[in-house]
Structure to design on (913 residues):
């Protein structure tokens, strides 16, 4: 049993890590704490529905459609909602993302209806048994792709010129503009990437479950994940996601599915008390 | 009082008036110019409007809640009066901001890379090599995080980052702030080299008037948002007015 | 920064209208408030029957729920708008209030009014606990601690519900004062109206006193407030307790009004609604909370009424509107919140106030320091 829970916890945790990573990218670039991250994930799932069912695109084109759609969505959000609000206080910045999530939910329900949909993408779906652990190929695929995406992002972030400018902008806004960085483009790119990462997570989640706006609640688990990991930390987001996935599976496996929240949010509260900067974050942030 | 300026004008500020939030004028009717290859100093006590002038030139006023009410700022032939700061940098104005503002979580090399990012790759590589040549200390610390370096080294890095973009003119704001005098003198000693090697003009804002007058050719003295004195640095240094109103205060302050 | 406080206090002083006008205004308002339930109940005004659309499709129960929400919104505005403590955990105190009211009524057999007091006390105590993280973290990290508290309280509520009640929810006793039972819309209205008005006045008046000024000072600049000798830590806990007590009261009232409440009601969206209300209404003023709650709770009825009206006309669009009313309402709400955030950061109260002042001939409140 234990190894079964650990396996599925790590697989789910990889998806959470991916969504949380997208969240961190957005937060680092624009200091926006994105409550809509779960909804962006849901958008990914519905992009998949559009491409695969409504447009009947072949699988590779479906993937391309999702990525391009998510990228455009992220850029549009940045220029329409985030930039006009530029650098306001904490609450308006949080609230605009909440408004965004309300709007996205309404639009999705208007277009696709409120009822959950079934979507089958041509992903490996068999199960093989290893000892007493049933390993679903879908879980393995999700984990592997998530890790590939995270790796790809880290290489981009650490090695490319755009990644460098992104890190510089996150380091200091004024210094960035005074170095000639076109901050708007960098921020828009960060929103595009953050949305794409969430969308990929959404595609996998909607294969493990039905496609519905209620997937948002799962996407919201990215919030405790990033805080547990450390808000500003890229590896922290990934590890936080894994941790949340593990806790979720163990708590719902051994205690009850309802107990999940308590086992995630009580540690969150403790971490806020003891190490507000997160397990892997840097100390200077957010203290009184 | 305007000194004759034979050079082609690189930066020209004409009739500039600025206020914050629609309140009293912080700058009123400032005229100022920097010629090609010149080093020009702006002097003034705290609150004279030096920082505001720099913000207006670099395009940062809006970020700090200020607005240009009248006047024009030109860099070369380009009117930059209300352009965004990043655009102004791309037109050839390098910035060494007050408080250095290096990217603390980036390495020395990455900091310079960011500066050079406005140039085509090949040219960027060349200017970075020139920066390393100018400040061998930076070359030694290439892979170190900027935030872990001493204040003097960070100041060198800020200067190097500005130079890496191969600017026509650099703005140096309060370079000496919070640094040991010896280090400040070392960095200022490089200014003439910078001009000859990078072909860069400089506009220096400095609290320490003696240093600034030593290194510059011309100087402007600001008082309560107006230019009260301008001319060749040597003349400004001997002017009775600056001795009384500014250098005198400085001397007292440094004794106290 | 400290200018903000001065400006606010000056504004409060200049808000005072000429006395006669004030008396007339209050009297008219009172008359309207007293007559309103009869209009809505009997769908007629002075004997003249009104159509549903003339009443904007608003019923008495929406008005009653709005009165309850006003208490919740104003208490959140007190915490977030006036004291600067951003909380996404306001639903937790609603949940707590309804749970305590139900539990003390059922297990301890306390009478109706006593359960309300118990709910307030429990809310105040829980508020102190929820406020503890504010001593250690602030900004975003504090917001997250309130998020954690939300999930923890809702979990406890669900456990209580499954242990003592059933999946359909917690049944709350009847609202009885002595032998008098509040069992009709009009009775509820006249019970809720004074409670809501009193709660708002109480919260408003604390802002005029020394401590209230300290609260505003703390929001504008915590360090400066601390340097001025205000014990910011104690003050934060007090504000939290005060605000939570009223949120719990609202929760308890809502539970009695609905007579059955379930854990699922108190979702994160429930809390978010209240944040939306104070943003739409206007942050940092009592009036903002009131206006926001009225707009937020009555607009859906009005919109749905309008959609029904449109249906009588031809076209697919009308039936589309009708089939997707909740989505349309949400779409409009989300957009309103976004537009207000971008274009009217002071909310509806922010742009109503100068208009109101100009009409009355008072002093403009902007730009005075």
């Amino acid at each position: 049993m234990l190894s079964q829970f650990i396996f599925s916890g790590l697989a789910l945790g990889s998806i959470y890590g991916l969504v949380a990573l997208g969240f961190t990218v957005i937060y680092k670039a624009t200091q926006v704490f994105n409550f809509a991250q779960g909804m962006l994930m849901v958008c990914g799932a519905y992009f998949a529905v559009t491409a695969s069912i409504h447009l009947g695109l072949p699988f590779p084109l479906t993937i391309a459609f999702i990525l391009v759609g998510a990228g455009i969505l992220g850029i549009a959000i940045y220029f329409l909602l985030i930039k006009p609000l530029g650098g306001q206080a904490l609450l308006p910045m949080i609230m605009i993302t909440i408004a965004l999530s309300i709007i996205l939910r309404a639009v999705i329900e208007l277009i696709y209806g409120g009822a959950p949909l079934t979507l089958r993408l041509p992903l490996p779906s068999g199960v093989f048994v290893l000892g007493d652990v049933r390993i679903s190929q879908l879980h393995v695929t999700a984990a592997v792709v998530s890790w590939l995406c995270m790796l790809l992002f880290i290489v981009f972030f650490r090695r490319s010129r755009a990644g460098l400018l992104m890190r510089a902008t996150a380091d200091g806004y004024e210094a960035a503009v005074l170095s000639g960085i076109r901050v708007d483009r960098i921020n828009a790119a960060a929103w595009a990437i953050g949305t794409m990462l969430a969308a990929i997570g959404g595609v996998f989640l909607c294969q493990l479950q039905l496609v519905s706006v209620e997937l948002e609640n799962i996407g919201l688990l990215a919030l405790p994940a990033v805080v547990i990991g450390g808000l500003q930390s890229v590896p922290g987001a990934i590890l936080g996601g894994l941790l949340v996935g593990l806790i979720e599976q163990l708590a719902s496996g051994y205690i009850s599915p309802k107990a999940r929240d308590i086992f995630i949010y009580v540690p969150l509260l403790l971490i806020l008390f003891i190490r507000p900067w997160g397990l892997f974050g840097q100390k200077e942030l957010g203290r009184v | 009082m305007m000194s004759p300026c034979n050079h082609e004008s690189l930066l020209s500020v004409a009739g500039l008036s600025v206020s914050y939030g629609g309140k009293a004028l912080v700058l009123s009717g400032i005229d100022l110019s920097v010629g090609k290859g010149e080093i020009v100093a702006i002097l003034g006590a705290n609150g004279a409007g030096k920082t505001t002038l720099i913000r207006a030139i670099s395009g940062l006023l809006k970020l700090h809640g200020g607005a240009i009410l009248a006047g024009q700022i030109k860099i070369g032939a380009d009117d930059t009066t209300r352009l965004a700061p990043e655009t102004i940098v791309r037109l050839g104005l390098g910035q060494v901001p007050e408080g250095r503002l290096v990217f603390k979580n980036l390495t020395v090399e990455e900091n310079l890379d960011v500066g050079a990012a406005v140039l085509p790759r090949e040219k960027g590589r060349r200017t970075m090599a020139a920066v390393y040549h100018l400040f061998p200390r930076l070359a030694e610390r290439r892979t170190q995080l900027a935030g872990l370096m001493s204040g003097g080294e960070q100041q060198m890095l800020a200067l190097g980052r500005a130079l890496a973009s191969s600017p026509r003119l650099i703005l140096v704001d309060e370079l000496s702030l919070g640094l040991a005098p010896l280090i400040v003198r070392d960095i200022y000693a490089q200014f003439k080299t910078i001009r000859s090697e990078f072909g860069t003009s400089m506009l220096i804002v400095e609290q320490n008037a003696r240093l600034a007058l030593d290194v510059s050719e011309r100087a402007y003295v600001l008082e309560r948002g107006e230019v009260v004195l301008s001319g060749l640095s040597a003349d400004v240094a001997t002017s009775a007015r600056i001795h009384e109103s500014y250098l005198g205060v400085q001397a007292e302050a440094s004794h106290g | 920064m400290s200018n903000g406080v001065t400006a606010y206090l000056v504004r409060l002083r200049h808000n005072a209208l000429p006395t006669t006008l004030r008396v007339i205004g209050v009297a008219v308002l009172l008359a309207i408030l007293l007559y309103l339930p009869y209009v809505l109940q009997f769908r007629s005004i002075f004997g003249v029957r009104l159509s549903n659309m003339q009443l904007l499709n608003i019923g008495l129960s929406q008005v009653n729920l709005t009165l309850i929400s006003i208490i919740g919104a104003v208490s959140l505005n007190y915490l977030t708008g006036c004291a600067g403590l951003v909380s996404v955990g306001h639903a937790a105190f609603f949940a707590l209030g309804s749970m305590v009211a139900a539990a003390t009524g059922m297990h301890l057999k306390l009478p109706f009014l006593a359960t309300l007091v118990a709910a307030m006390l429990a809310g105040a105590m829980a508020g102190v606990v929820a406020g503890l993280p504010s001593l250690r973290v602030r900004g975003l990290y504090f917001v997250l601690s309130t998020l954690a508290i939300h999930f923890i309280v809702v979990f406890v509520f669900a456990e209580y519900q499954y242990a003592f009640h059933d999946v359909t929810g917690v049944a709350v006793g009847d609202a009885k004062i002595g032998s008098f039972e509040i069992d009709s819309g009009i009775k509820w209205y006249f019970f809720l109206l004074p409670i809501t008005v009193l709660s708002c006045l109480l919260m408003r008046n604390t802002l005029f006193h020394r401590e209230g000024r300290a609260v505003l000072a703390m929001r504008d600049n915590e360090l400066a407030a601390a340097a001025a000798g205000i014990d910011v830590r104690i003050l934060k806990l007090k504000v939290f307790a005060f605000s939570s007590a009223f949120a719990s009261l609202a929760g308890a009232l809502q539970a009695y009004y609905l007579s059955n409440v379930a854990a699922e009601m108190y979702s994160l969206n429930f809390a978010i609604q209240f944040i939306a209300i104070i943003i739409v209404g206007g942050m940092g003023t009592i009036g903002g909370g009131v206006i926001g709650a009225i707009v937020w709770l009555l607009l859906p009825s009005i919109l749905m009424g309008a959609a029904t009206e449109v249906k009588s006309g031809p076209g697919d669009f009308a039936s589309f509107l009708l089939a997707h009313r909740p989505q349309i309402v949400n779409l409009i709400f989300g957009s309103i919140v976004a537009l207000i955030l971008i274009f009217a950061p002071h909310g509806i109260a922010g742009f109503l106030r100068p208009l109101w002042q100009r009409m009355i001939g008072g002093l403009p409140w902007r730009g005075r320091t």
Remarks:
- The longest strand of chain C covers residues 44-45.
